[in-house]
Design brief:
single chain, alpha/beta, Rossmann fold, GMP Synthetase, Chain A, domain 3, nine-stranded mixed β-sheet, five-stranded parallel β-sheet, 14 helices, 21 strands, about 25% strand, binds xanthosine-5'-monophosphate
């Protein structure tokens, strides 16, 4: 396994995904992870990666005494040379782009690659004083951007091989994995499934497990995986809080009850959610109420069952990294349907804890889950409750649900569905003046949002064809009498978030 010591930001996650794509198992831990634990993991290689705006000082020098190959990237490379009493030059403002680098093919890192490589870096961010024992293996305009200590197998590079668009970066990472570390490419989802089912069987035995199924990718894959291990001893609860998209409940029933023959309890809790949300307009309060009410409903169902020892959750690796690594301020209180309070007397089963999203999808496909579920776009736990701005009422939910359905239908027909990360309709709490059949109308506005993103942390609005937008707008205003205006959201994240509330 490869251990990534993370200095912050999302670079380490890109790197982790790239390494896993090469079928090598890796884990991301904070840069100050205790030395004893590092040793305990017995890594085949260590990568120091990430970018942090504050200076954390030099890294723990004993990492370099473990006899394990080390690759340091970007800011990690900067810290590495400091540790070895070298230095680098940091520009005042950064300007990262693809530049042509001269690479030394004698180095294992560049073995088999061209002599000039296109790599992503700031060409002003370079090594200045090269520490003793190290030599230059990559340069640009005569300045050093990559160094190695051949004996100790320590590398420091100023370019970012992990970014998705860097093809040559991928080969450099593979060289580090296979030529420098001799890592074994034995990480694959078929084996993961086999081993995980075996482990779950051993762990749970004859006891019963409960799963809050939301119909999202993660909880669906987790449920099917556990079902494969313990069959009918897994009981799934699907709470219909009335904040779901059109046909969602039917789809979940079709897949889990009809296809997989799972023990599924669907709870119709629409009225109690609406009652709780009556008169509430504050977005955070709404989220809280929905989250708490979900737990109440789930608890009541759980009390009707006996002998439940385990709770299955669809936690995935980015959730683990996010809660364990960054001290990021929560912009919104995200409550996952399926997220439950701490005071439960259950053991947790989180079979997807080690997997990135694309790996979860792969596992889902291998388990025979349909594309409809496996490729499902993200949907917030509080559902349409945060897409009806202001007070949530049944009428407003019906409007946004129908608009969302039309939007999704047209996007699919136009074959844009695979090109967009997330798209949905929002009902802002405003009415405007319009005209229909020669009569004045005063009805609601629908906002459409379509964004592309890698992980939801940042997002770009999608340039949908104007003709398609017009078609969608026409359908919404024709088919939903309470809507006379449609607007398209052209804001990136940041400054906006993806959801409006
Ligand atoms: P924001 O609006 O924060 O959303 O830019 C980022 C991503 O997270 C989804 N989202 C949620 N997911 N529970 C969830 O499971 C939530 O409460 C929640 N709120 C937002 C959002 O749809 C987007 O994909």
């Amino acid at each position: 396994m490869i251990l990534i010591l993370d200095l912050g930001s999302k670079f380490s996650r890109f790197l982790g995904r790239r390494i896993r794509e090469s079928k090598v198992y890796c884990e991301i831990v904070p840069y100050n992870y205790p030395m004893e634990k590092i040793k305990g993991k017995n890594p085949e290689g260590i990568i120091i990666s990430g970018e942090m705006p504050i200076d954390i000082g030099a890294i723990n020098g004993s990492i370099f005494e473990l006899g394990v190959p080390v690759l340091s990237i970007g800011y990690g490379a900067d810290l590495l040379v400091q540790t070895f009493r070298g230095s680098s030059i940091k520009p005042n403002t950064f300007n990262y782009k693809f530049e042509t680098i001269n690479a030394d093919k004698e180095s294992l890192l560049f073995n088999g690659l061209y002599e000039s490589l296109s790599l992503w870096l700031d060409k002003e961010y370079v090594f200045d004083n090269i520490p003793e024992g190290f030599e230059t293996i990559g340069y640009i305009d005569g300045k050093t951007v990559a160094i190695e200590n051949r004996d100790k197998k320590i590398y420091a590079v100023m370019f970012h091989p992990e970014i998705e668009t860097s093809n040559e970066g991928k080969y450099i990472i593979d060289n580090f994995l296979f030529k420098v570390c001799n890592a074994a490419p034995n990480w694959n989802m078929e084996e993961f499934i086999e081993n995980t089912i075996e482990e779950i069987r051993k762990e749970i035995g004859d006891r019963k497990a409960l799963c809050a199924l939301s119909g999202g990718v993660d909880s669906s894959v987790a449920a099917v995986l556990v079902h494969n291990a313990i069959g009918d001893n897994l009981i799934c609860v699907f709470v219909d809080h009335g904040l779901l998209r059109k046909n969602e409940k039917e789809q979940v029933e079709k897949v889990f009850r009809d296809q997989f023959h799972m023990n599924l309890i669907t709870v119709d809790a629409k009225d109690r959610f609406l009652k709780k949300l009556k008169g509430v307009t504050d977005p955070e309060k709404k989220r809280k109420i929905i989250g708490e009410e979900f737990i109440r409903v789930f608890e009541e169902e759980q009390k009707k069952l006996d002998d439940i020892g385990y709770l299955v959750q669809g936690t995935i690796y980015p959730d683990v990294i996010e809660s364990g690594l960054s001290g990021d301020v929560a912009v919104k209180s995200h409550h996952n349907v399926g997220g439950l309070p701490d005071d439960y007397d259950f053991e947790l089963v989180e079979p997807l804890r080690q997997l990135f999203k694309d790996e979860v999808r792969k596992v889902g496909r291998l388990l025979g889950i349909s594309e409809e579920i496996v490729e499902r776009q993200p949907f917030p736990g509080p559902g349409l409750g945060v897409r009806v701005l202001g007070e949530v009422t049944e009428e407003k939910l019906n409007i946004v649900r129908e608009a969302d359905y039309i939007f999704r239908d047209e996007i699919k027909k136009a074959k844009w569905d695979k090109k967009i990360w997330q798209y949905f309709a929002v009902l802002p709490d405003i009415k405007t003046v319009g005209i229909k059949d020669g009569e004045r109308t005063y009805t609601y506005t629908i906002a459409l949002r379509a964004i592309n993103s890698v992980d939801g942390m940042t997002a770009q609005w999608v340039r949908l064809p104007l003709e398609l937008l017009e078609k969608i707008s026409n359908r919404i205003t024709e088919e939903i009498p309470q809507v006379n205006r449609v607007v398209y959201d052209i804001t990136n994240k940041p400054p906006a978030t993806i959801e409006w509330e």
